[in-house]
Design brief:
Length: about 450
């Protein structure tokens, strides 16, 4: 029988851990007070306060999985910049590439010789022949949506409830409560997003079929696994149905691999034989500096070329000055050559399986109603017994207070996991000892919560 964790125990742990965090980090507290004078919410980017700690933790160094804060406290990092540093902080091949290429210019608005090699590597790893570079995956998603609308002549897109596609306003539409409406998290949007965005639940084939039946959707923008509300896996046969329905209705299928790239050297798409018309990938593709890519199938690229023949040159309206820079392409080459390989991913997958089993064993040991799920080198645990089948279900069962309590407990004991939904990544610098430390910390945390 599953053991219920009393709310009082969660509240007591949170109070103790917040007090301990404040005691451990006086320098971070002082720096927080200083930065509060000039930065919105006291940080350079407001998501940096989403850790839920009494004040931000200021980091002085990060190498591999070793992070040191301003007070000299050391941590093992399983968050890795929420995937941005998926291959570790400052890995040596990337540092060497930065040193080698950095002295020859960062950006010129002209291609470098590395461009040819990176194009071949992208096609080899991910199966799509034609690519473009942006600064972020959000930019890449915006660009792909525009291209899909342009070549299809359709205005609408379709996304899944509680999806994650970065800061793309049009994807912030939810059906929580039964009626499509803009997500309340969206700031400053003045349009009625439901005019141009349809939203259905993940894994709901009949709903998807109804939404596409009118043949007015330019593209379906989909994560292969939902990752913004814990990890929601596709039902068996779901991706085949998604591909069949999009083809039958003339709808382009775009797979956003930004979080699921942990699945293997060709992402979830290659690992599971998906056949998208376009793909988006960001975060780790240049080792953690701002860069992302989007790619097209040969057929989709040909449609884009035909569309461009009707346009005045230089008037596509897609792209930014710093996209495709010399330094981005040089670092992407280093990342693709060194880390997007079977040899590099093999040990990561093996160690991630051990982490998954270690967490599962702790859950079983303490009899708590939780579960653990893995996508390649990415592991998450969710404080609910059953795996949700869609974003709506997942959003209803997320237990934010216990997530925060566990995160605080681990952080104060030198282990960093992603605060949003207990995500953990294994990178080349992660060892069995690091995994053991995380599992031991979770075991101690549950011992205290259930005791």
């Amino acid at each position: 029988m599953a053991r219920h964790i009393p709310e009082a125990a969660i509240e007591a742990m949170l109070a103790r851990e917040e007090a301990l965090f404040t005691q451990r980090n006086p320098t971070s507290r002082r720096l927080s007070e200083e930065t509060g004078r000039n930065w919105l919410k006291g940080v350079p980017m407001h998501w940096m306060v989403d850790w839920g700690t009494p004040f931000p933790l200021f980091v002085t160094s990060a190498r591999g999985v070793d992070v040191t804060d301003a007070d000299g406290n050391a941590y093992v990092d399983f968050c890795l910049g929420d995937t941005g540093a998926m291959f570790g902080h400052s890995p040596q091949p990337i540092v060497e590439a930065l040193q080698r290429a950095g002295g020859d210019g960062f950006t010129t608005m002209m291609p470098s010789p590395d461009a040819a090699a990176v194009g071949r590597l992208l096609e080899d790893r991910f199966g799509l022949p034609v690519w473009q570079v942006t600064a972020t995956a959000s930019d890449a998603n915006r660009a792909v949506i525009k291209w899909c609308r342009a070549i299809s002549g359709r205005k609408k897109i379709l996304v899944f409830n509680h999806c994650y596609h970065g800061a793309v306003d049009e994807t912030y539409v939810t059906i929580d409560g039964g009626t499509p409406h803009a997500d309340p998290a969206l700031i400053g949007e003045v349009r009625d997003l439901t005019q141009f965005t349809k939203v259905v639940e993940f894994n709901d084939i009949p709903a998807l079929e109804r939404a596409l039946a009118e043949e007015d959707v330019a593209c379906v923008l989909a994560e292969p696994i939902m990752t913004n509300v814990g990890m929601v896996l596709p039902d068996e046969g779901y991706h085949a149905a998604l591909r069949d329905l999009t083809r039958r209705t003339g709808t382009l299928l775009v797979i956003d691999e930004t979080h699921c790239i942990s699945s293997g050297p060709g992402g979830y798409t290659r690992a599971h034989g998906l056949e998208p018309d376009a793909m988006v990938m960001g975060k780790p593709v240049a080792g953690g500096i701002p860069a992302a890519v989007y790619g097209f199938s040969a057929e989709t690229a040909a449609r884009i070329q035909r569309f461009l023949e009707t346009r005045t040159p230089g008037h596509s309206g897609i792209g930014t000055t710093l996209a495709g820079s010399k330094i981005q392409v040089a670092l992407m080459r280093a990342v693709l050559e060194n880390y997007f390989t079977e040899e590099a991913f093999g040990p990561l997958l093996t160690l991630a399986k051990r982490l998954e089993k270690g967490i599962a064993d702790v859950i079983i040991k303490h009899g708590v109603p939780w579960h653990v799920v893995r996508a390649g080198a990415r592991v998450e645990f969710m404080c609910t017994p059953e795996r949700p089948r869609n974003g709506g279900e997942a959003a209803q069962v997320i237990h934010r207070p216990i997530d925060v309590a566990v995160h605080h407990f681990l952080l104060n004991r030198g282990v960093i996991v992603t605060p949003f939904h207990n995500m953990m990544l294994v990178c080349p610098a992660t060892t069995e000892a690091h995994v053991g430390r995380l599992v031991e910390g979770l075991d101690r945390c549950l011992t205290e919560l259930t005791g």
